[in-house]
Amino acid sequence: MVSIITTPSILLGCGDKPTSPPPPKIEPSKLFEQERSTLEKAKGMEQQLNKNTEQLKQDVEKQAQ
């Protein structure tokens, strides 16, 4: 009786286990490329906003005189 229960367990436990495919290889240069691009765009927008803010301050000062 014990052999009837243990034999299938042993056979199933020793079989090939399904493996998942390895993750795709990503070149280091492409790693976080989208995030870098977005960050660069944000930095460019920040510079433009700072430039526009400074110009607006100068315009307000000229009008206040």
Structural account:
It is a single chain. With 65 residues, the chain is mostly helical. The protein is built from two helices and no strands. The longest helix is centred in the C-terminal third of the chain and has 32 residues, at 33-64. The protein is rod-shaped.
Name the helicity range. Answer: 55-70%
Distance between the termini: 104 Å
**Uncertain segments:** none
Instruction: Compute the number of helices.
Output: 2
Whole-angstrom Rg = 32 Å
Beta-strand percentage range: under 5%
- Shape label: rod-shaped
The total strand number stands at 0
What is the chains' assembly state?
A: single chain
Q: What is the H/E string?
A: HH
* Structural class computed from helices and strand pairing: mainly alpha
Mean of the pLDDT scores?
A: 81
Main sheet specs: none
Topology:
Layout: H1 2-13, H2 33-64
Concise structural overview:
By secondary structure, the chain is mainly alpha-helical. Helices cover 68% and strands 0% of the residues. The termini are far apart.
List the main descriptive attributes of the protein structure presented here:
single chain, 65 residues, mainly alpha, rod-shaped
